[in-house]
């Protein structure tokens, strides 16, 4: 794409030339009209002056002497020496009532017959030249007075007027174009300064732009750039946190796996090899869970600021998730109880987030449930929120640990846990505009409640314990 300066200048010059062409056309038309009016008036005036001369009270011989003097004086005219070149293009003739030529200029055109029509007319002489003429017939004497002017006189004058006005306009347009070019460059200077500032910044610099003074037209651009830099900085921060968390959390499991592998290598009996192999498999499973939860956190963080506007059937989503979890719970010798008597609730959420949250709540409950324990899942609603409740028969939580249960990598009472499950559920509840609460059951065990806004509800509550 061409530069802004070139595009703007091309548009301005194009408009100027178009306007100049229109003005030139109007100027030519007006010049033709005004010159025709003035010259026609002069023709009529000259004819009437000649009429006044012809009406002078003289005898017949005096008139003949006057005509002779007229003709002799007109014959002596030498335009290139003591006159004007245009004299040869202006003429008059006077005819007697009988049609005889009384007086005429040397430049008078040769006509096949005297004109009979009074007033203005356009005629062509025997040599093919165009004339603008005025015919006046004197009622007293009967003479006919004809005054004419060649059309090329008028055309030459119009051409001179147009040239004298057109060239200054063209020259002025070129000067104005140069001034506009400089003015546009001066006006775009802040944009050029912004571009130079961006080019001079280090590739890793993500600090917000603070350009001053800044025209109001560039303020939205600076705000958009700062917002984009902030988003990039936030994304890089998430990436750094993920790498740091992964490196921190993977160090211990990998060291444990190495120990188990060495024990397996050094085992002296079959029983020791089996025990070491079982520990190694358990360590691999724990490491796999840790990796999966770290990846889940990495996927959730970019969505934390994205608003959720879709609506889902919470009961159907929960039922589909429990179908996939049931075989795993049975393999751990646990039972699942799902009360779906009231399961048709439309909530503002997405199925993927609900599935992740429910998986972590069920996994957390299974880790603390005794063998043959029952994990209960049910749904309820109140005050514009739908509540997803997961209950287990484990030991519950200690009040001294309650404040830290949602911290990342904090795991209390579960040496096999990575400390990310409840943190993931907390992040999901925050994104959905709800909350996650934990409470000990009177009959024993823990109750985890995920509250989600229902469809048509604009209520949002803070996530807390």
How would you describe what is shown here?
Helix 8 packs parallel to helix 9 (351-368) and helix 9 packs antiparallel against helix 11. The model is unreliable at 459-465 (pLDDT under 50). The protein has eleven helices and twelve strands. The protein folds into three domains: 4-161, Beta-Lactamase, CATH 3.30.450; 221-301, Orthogonal Bundle (Helix Hairpins), CATH 1.10.287.130; 307-453, Histidine kinase-like ATPase, C-terminal domain (Heat Shock Protein 90). By secondary structure, the chain is of the alpha+beta class.
Can I get a quick summary?
The chain has 465 residues and is α+β, with helices and mostly antiparallel strands.
Features:
3 domains; five-stranded antiparallel beta sheet; single chain; Helix Hairpins; 15% strand; Beta-Lactamase; alpha+beta; 11 helices; Heat Shock Protein 90; 465 residues
Structural class of the helices, strands and pairings?
alpha+beta
Find the count of extended strands (DSSP E, 2+ residues): 12
Q: Outline, from the CA principal axes?
A: rod-shaped
Q: So what's the CATH class of the largest domain?
A: Alpha Beta
- Total helices: the number is 11
How much helix, percentage-wise, in residues?
Answer: 40-55%
> How many domain regions?
3
Instruction: Report the radius of gyration as a whole number of Å.
Output: 53 Å
Mind telling me which CATH architecture of the largest domain this is? 2-Layer Sandwich
- Please outline the major beta sheet: 5 strands, antiparallel
How far from one another are the termini? 57 Å
Order of helical and strand elements: HHHEEEEEHHHHEHEEHEEHHEE
Oligomer: single chain
Mean pLDDT: 77
Instruction: Report the CATH topology name of the largest domain.
Output: Beta-Lactamase
What is the topology, as strand order, of the major beta sheet?
Answer: 2-1-5-4-3
Strand-residue fraction? 15-25%
Low-confidence stretches: 459-465
């Amino acid at each position: 794409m061409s530069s802004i300066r070139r595009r703007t200048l091309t548009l301005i010059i194009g408009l100027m030339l178009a306007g100049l062409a229109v003005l030139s056309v109007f100027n030519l038309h007006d010049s033709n009209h005004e010159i025709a009016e003035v010259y026609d008036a002069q023709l009529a005036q000259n004819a009437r002056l000649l009429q006044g001369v012809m009406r002078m009270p003289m005898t017949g011989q005096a008139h003949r002497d006057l005509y002779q003097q007229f003709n002799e004086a007109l014959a002596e005219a030498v335009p290139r020496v003591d006159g004007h070149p245009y004299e040869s293009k202006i003429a008059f003739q006077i005819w007697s009532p009988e049609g005889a030529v009384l007086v005429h200029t040397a430049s008078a055109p040769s006509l096949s017959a005297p004109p009979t029509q009074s007033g203005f007319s356009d005629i062509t002489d025997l040599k093919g030249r165009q004339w603008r003429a005025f015919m006046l017939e004197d009622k007293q004497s009967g003479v006919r007075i004809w005054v004419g002017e060649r059309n090329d006189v008028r055309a030459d004058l119009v051409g001179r007027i147009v040239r004298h006005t057109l060239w200054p306009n063209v020259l002025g347009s070129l000067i104005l174009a140069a001034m506009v070019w400089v003015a546009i460059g001066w006006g775009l200077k802040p944009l050029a300064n912004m571009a130079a500032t961006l080019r001079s910044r280090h590739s890793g610099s993500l600090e917000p732009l603070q350009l001053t003074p800044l025209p109001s037209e560039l303020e939205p651009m600076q705000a958009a750039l700062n917002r984009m830099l902030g988003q990039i900085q936030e994304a890089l921060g998430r990436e750094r946190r993920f790498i740091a968390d992964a490196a921190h959390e993977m160090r211990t499991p990998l060291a444990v796996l190495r120990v188990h592998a060495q024990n397996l290598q050094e085992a002296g009996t079959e029983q020791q090899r089996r025990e070491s192999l079982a520990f190694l498999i358990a360590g691999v499973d724990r490491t796999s869970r840790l990796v999966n939860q770290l990846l889940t956190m990495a996927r959730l963080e970019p969505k934390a600021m994205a608003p959720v506007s879709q609506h889902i059937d919470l009961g159907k989503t929960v039922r589909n998730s429990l179908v996939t979890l049931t075989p795993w719970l049975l393999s751990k010798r646990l039972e699942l109880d799902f009360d779906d008597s009231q399961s048709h609730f439309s909530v503002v959420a997405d199925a993927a987030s609900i599935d992740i949250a429910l998986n972590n709540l069920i996994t957390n409950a299974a880790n603390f449930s005794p063998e043959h324990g029952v994990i209960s899942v049910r749904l309820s609603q109140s005050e514009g929120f739908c509540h997803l409740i997961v209950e287990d028969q484990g030991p519950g939580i200690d009040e001294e640990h309650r404040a830290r249960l949602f911290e990342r990598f904090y795991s209390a009472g579960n040496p096999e846990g990575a400390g990310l499950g409840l943190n993931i559920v907390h992040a999901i509840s925050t994104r959905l505009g709800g909350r996650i609460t934990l409470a000990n059951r009177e009959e024993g065990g823990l109750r985890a409640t995920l509250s989600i806004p229902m469809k048509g509800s604009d209520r949002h509550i803070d996530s807390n314990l």
